[in-house]
Each structure stands twice: as structure tokens, then as C-alpha cells.
## 1
Amino acid sequence: MGPGMTGSGMTFTGFAAGIAASGLTLQVLSSVLALSRCRTTAKAPPPSELPPVTIVQPLCGVESFSRETLASIFALDYPEYEILFCLADGADAIAPLVRGFMDAHPHISSRLLVGDERISANPKLNNVVKGWRQAQHRWIVIADSNVLMPRDYIQRLLSRWRSDTGIVCSPPIGSRPENFAARLECAFLNTYQAKWQYAGERVGYGFAQGKTMLWRRDVLENGGGIEALGAEIAEDAASTKLVHRAGLRAHLVNRPFAQPLGTRRFVDVWRRQLRWARLRRATFAIYFVPEIFTSSVFTLVAASIAAGYFAASPVLGFAFAFAIWYGMEAMLALAAGWPMGVWFLPACVLRDAILPWLWVQGWTGDQFEWRGNAMTVRETEMAADSGAPYPPN
């Protein structure tokens, strides 16, 4: 005990030591659990069969890496697949680019579907529905337009299907950041959100992720069809609940797929994270509550206070916890082949400083921005119930 430490002081520092130990234990455990599935050498047994697959891809506007991501979807090493591109507006700037790729790959079955059937308050779901209905195959992948697909994309998804599987997904992994804001987004996507998703799945709490979703048609049809995904304001939340109601699980692919970021603006990173926070709070409030403790802030402060319990300086306690916390993140990123570099640590520290405020904002507001449209959780919930119009995609 430190000089002059009273019984109450010892109790307080002991309590802080417990908080610090708990935080560090969770950080180490979650990183190790994610590491086993995300490292570059993590592989699942190849699928025993390669059934024909439909890829449904909603599109909206030209993005920085549109040419690259479109090229990747036409370069898959898979014996039989069709691609159904979905547009709400035929005049969208991405349409000529898509048609050019389709013309350049006549040997791959592909179609561009145009139409805006508003079955829900979710613009993406409304864009996807026509593709789902026209899909020719039993196995259907719904994939966002900014997913950079490796050649074995479909095989890796199918290899994770089990007898208890209802959906296989991949969280987005930020890649190729070109400025610090993009590196901050990598810190959110990779060693934070993807890490916790994989850790949760490993202990039996898998959640669907809308970036890439592999469905077997009968699973979704038995749960009410594609329209059932409009029951929530986010289709991945609705997918998770539908799968769980069926007594099935959401599984994640080994070695999740990259989303190239390029240059980002801080305001856009904040808006995206705020949207996701408010959607998580609206759809899975019980899991959103403890998110505030996933920031390093509380563990580092507790470790500084707890140092007195061991007659050490607060600086030493802080440094010890800091090294473990971010050392585990660096180990995960290195083993998984995710972006690192000199700005990796500052981006992770800034993310953790932002997280408590982001959590507060998740609870205190309903507004969010989706593809430039101002929306609210309450409005989209009401629109989903009534079938009322929503802002265009």
C-alpha cells in the first residue's frame, strides 16, 4: 500500500484495478478471438459443392473505386454465377459504366434492373427487391457496390455455411486509406467494429452485416420474404432477427473483404459512425448499452488510478495499460494484413476518444444522414409501419 493510503483509498484503487483488469482482459480476449478468423492464413474447408449463385448489387452514383469494384465482380473464379445490378433511377451516372462492363464480359450472365419499388423506409432494400425477385438461383448474395471482391469471394462465403446457418456475412474492412480521416475510418471499421463482430460470433452472438450477405432463398422466404427485411430501418438488423427467430445463426466469412476508402472527410466519417450508432441503438438497444465501455478511455484512467494500489506511479499504470490495449490492436491488424503505418496508433487513440461522445449522441438524437438524405429513426420507423414515402436514395 502506498504511503498514507487509507482504507477507503485502498478500496477505491482496488476497484479501479478491477475495472482496468476487466477492460484489458476483454480487449485481449476479443482480439484473440477475432485473430483466429481474420488472419491472412485463416481458411475454412472448401465447399463440397459449387452451386450456381446470383449476386444482387444495389448501385447509386459513381464512387472513387467504382471501376475497380466492378472489375472485381466480373473477375470471380466461379463456374456459374449471374449478376443483377439494381438502380432506382435509370439516369444515374453509374449506369453507362455498368453497361460498359457488361458489354465487355458477354460470357458472364448479367443484367441491369431499373425501378424504385418502395416496400419499406430503407432505400437500399427498395433498390434490392427487384433483384431478389428476378434472381434465378437458390443461393443469393446481396453485396454493396464498394466491396472489392477477391477471386474466391463466393467460395469463401459458401465455405462458412453450416447446418445451423441462416446467413453468412462479411463486415467491411477499410483498405487503402489516403489521408488521416480515412485512417480514422479504418480504426473504426477494422480493429474495433470487425473485431467485436468476430468476437461476438465466436461466442455465439453473431450479427448480420449488410455489406455482404449470402442467403439461401428458402431461409428468407420462410421468414416472410424480402419484404420482411423492411421490419427494421436497417436490413442487417432485420436479417439478424429473422435468422434468430428461425433458430439459426449468422456466421461471418473467414478473412473479411476489403472496402477501399481513398480520401475521406472527417465530417463524413463522423456522420457515418453516428448513423450506425443510432441505428444500433434503435434496433439492438440492449447490446448498445455496454458499447461505451469498449473505448480504452475508461480502462486507461482506471489503470492510472489503480497504480497506487501497487505503489506505482499513475504514469506507469497508464503506460502499461496503453501498451497492452493498442499492442493487441496492432497484433490483430498485422496478422490480418490490415492497413497500419505511422498513423495507425494516432487514429486508434482518436477513435477511442470519440467513442464515449458517439455513444452519448447515439442515445440523445434520432437524426442521421443516409446518402445525403436527412432522416430520423422515428420517421423511418413510422414510414415502415405505414408505407409512407421516404427521402429518395
Note: Residues 45-265 form a domain with the Spore Coat Polysaccharide Biosynthesis Protein SpsA; Chain A fold (CATH 3.90.550.10).
## 2
Amino acid sequence: MPELPEVESIRRMLKRSVVGRTIVAAKVTEPRLRRRVAPALARAVVGRRIEGVGRRAKYLIVRLSGGDAIVVHLGMSGTITHRESRAGIDRAGSGNPPDGLSGQVDSAHDHAVLELDDGSRIVYNDPRRFGLLKLIPLDGLAASEELRALGPEPLSRAFDAAYLAEKARARRLAIKNLIMDQRIVAGIGNIYAAEILFRAGVRPARRAGGLKRAEIERIVAAAPCVLKEAIGRRGTTFRSYRDSRGRPGGFAGRLRVYGREGEPCYRCSTPIRNLMVGQRASFFCPRCQR
């Protein structure tokens, strides 16, 4: 599932390439996503200018003229790509057919298309259809069902050791599950929780309320380091994730524990282990993480 680094990478690319463009046509060919796309969405966005592209947690927020925003969640397998339509070239200029994107994005799963005034297209593709597309008034975003319960961003000053220590106090919940709870901290998922805890030297199954203050501080310090490095490499791709130009993320080669069960730890050579925490695979080094 795309997490904060993947969505932030897409946001930055779209900000450079689509802000200022006007939507001249729109269509939704498959409304049956996690929640059904409103029939009026396509009609409502035509003629609107894209004024900005933001992000909250794992949600992409495309701000439009007229006081609305398209809120997008990529679900398990969704992608948003900006494709050139006139010359059959994607926005990266690679010369690949826009509906092929190097053979990695199947156009059969293109469920929504926004045609822009320069002839290019923003395309939402989602094979598993767990994503979300919703038009929400800008003045109602913070109170919307999707965003109102979210915790602070892990890249913000609000996410500090005092805050996390307070949320962890007396909690029997595993620390990995705590930092993946979107009500506690917004945007961290399974991949980056594993990597953050490895860098902090804390085992994922440790009871949150039993952590020492120094361990909490290490987690808070590790989170932005891991996330910023992943953003710099356009996120992590294992299967379906692609950035807005159809390219896979480059952070997979930098993962220290996630997906490396049985392989030697890069620090101490101890084999990486995997256990289930909250019904999710949780990778860790039994020597480096206590």
C-alpha cells in the first residue's frame, strides 16, 4: 500500500507539472472503488483550474478553483500518472505508449481520467479498486470523514517525543501498531514502521507503554530520517506502485529489514526475523533491536 513517501513523491511531481492547468474534460469509467465515486464528480470538475496539490497522511489533495478539492487515496494498488496524450509519450519523455508506461501500468484499470488544457491527462489507475476519489469543499476538508481523525504528520513539529510518550503511556499495544495508527501519527504504514523501528533499535512487538523515554526519542528522531530518504528516492516499489511519471520508486534497495527475512542484518550479520504483529508481517533484527 502506498504510504506517506509514495504519496508525497507523487504530490511533488504533480505540483510541478499540473498546477495552473485547467480540466477541460473528465470521465470516470469505473466508479466502484472502496467507496463508490459520486456520479457528479466528473461533471463538477470540468472547467476548474488546478490551483495546488497537497497531501494529508496518505491522501492526495488536488485543490481546484471554485473552492473544492479532489481527495484521492491510492488504496492497495492505485497510481496517479500524468500522461501526454497528443504524441503518445509519457511525461518523462521516454517515448513509451502512455497507456503502457513501460509495461507496468495496465490501461484496463484506468478508472478515471482528467483531460487538461495542454492535451495531457491525469489518470487514476487501480487494479484492486481499494482507492478513493471524492470531491470535498476546501472549507470542509479538516472536518471531512477522511481527514478529521488523523493524527499529526511525522514530518511536523507536532510529532515529538513528548507527544508520542503521552500516546504510549500505559498502552499495552505493540509500538509498531501504535505508530501505524493513523489517529496517532498520520501516514506511516507497514514498510516504514519496520524501518523506523530498526533505526531506533526497538523491536516491533514491544509494549508501547513499556518503552523508555530514550527509546521514544530514538523513534521520533528516526521517523523523519527514514521518510525523507524514501521521499528522495520516490518511495518503495515491490509490485504496482509507480510515481506520477510511471516510474517505480527507488527506495527498495535501501530497506534494512522489511522483506529481508533470513538475510543477514547489514549491521551485525544476524539473520533478519519476521513475526506477526497485529496480523502484519513485522521484520526486525533480533540483535540490533531490543
Note: Helices lie at 4-18, 41-45, 161-168, 175-180, 190-200, 213-232.
